Amino acid sequence: KAGVTQTPRYLIKTRGQQVTLSCSPISGHRSVSWYQQTPGQGLQFLFEYFSETQRNKGNFPGRFSGRQFSNSRSEMNVSTLELGDSALYLCASSLERLAIYEQFFGPGTRLTVL
Amino acid sequence: GENVEQHPSTLSVQEGDSAVIKCTYSDSASNYFPWYKQELGKRPQLIIDIRSNVGEKKDQRIAVTLNKTAKHFSLHITETQPEDSAVYFCAASRGGATNKLIFGTGTLLAVQP
User: Fold this and answer.
1) Residue ranges in chain A whose pLDDT is less than 70
2) At A2, is the secondary structure helix, strand, or coil?
3) Is residue A97 a contact partner of residue A5, using CB atoms and an 8 Å limit?
4) Residues of chain A positioned with their CB less than 8 A from the CB of B108
5) A57, A87, B55, B78: which is deepest, by most CB within 10 A?
């Protein structure tokens, strides 16, 4: 079974631009969560999606948004990019939400904001 | 608020020695505690997890213990090998209600051959 995939793997943007990142979960997984990883802040939760609905949101500004499609694929968008948005963005997929299942991470998208 | 503290931030051991990483969580509703290993430039990979109804779980050289009363959980790696060198993250979650993971700050483990 293929693992979690994320595209693109690397991205360079300039301040003020916007970016869309994509995550394809493991086949059959319906829950997708997003995390931001930086050397200073570690791994921080962004959002959780299940059945095309955002179920939980972390403490990030409204410039960070996301969505989930009917095939469970998810996208996250960051508008008006700031230098501090440079990070590795990881998504994780899980089979379900209302039960404890392992979460599997994708390889991440490395975003650099210049 | 929700918080997970992890210690130490760096740990250097000789090959064959044991390594212990400790985490403390603040949310008493947490009931699922996974540990992830992240090698340089790679994705975090789940190595072991424990649920709140279990006090200890072991998988070959890796074990995790949980003390719900003290809100502590620990990762134990025995007979360390150079390939164990990586950053290890603990996390806590209200499993069953959400998949949101609150991560510790990570421990850089270096196993010296």
Assistant:
1) 1
2) coil
3) no
4) none
5) A87
Calpha distance A26→A32 (Å, rounded): 10
**Residue B108 in this model has a pLDDT that exceeds 80:** yes
Report chain A's mean pLDDT, rounded to a whole number: 94
For B104, list phi and psi in degrees, rounded to 5.
-75, 175
The pLDDT score that the predictor gives to residue A21 is 98
38-97 of A, contacting B, C-beta below 8 A: 42-45, 48, 50, 55-56, 58, 90, 92, 94, 97
**DSSP strand pairing (B62-67 vs B56-59):** antiparallel
pLDDT(B67) > 90: yes
Residue of A nearest to B103 (CA): A43
pLDDT in tens, B3-36: 999 999 999 999 999 999 999 999 999 999 999 9
Residues from chain A contacting residue B102 (CB–CB below 8 Å): 45
Q: Are A86 and A113 in contact (CB under 8 A)?
A: yes
Q: What is the pLDDT of residue B95?
A: 82
Which candidate, A91, A4, A10, places its Cα nearest to that of A47? A91
Q: Which of B95, B103, B105 sits opposite A100 (nearest CB)?
A: B95
Dihedral sign of CA atoms A85, A87, A91, A92 in order: negative
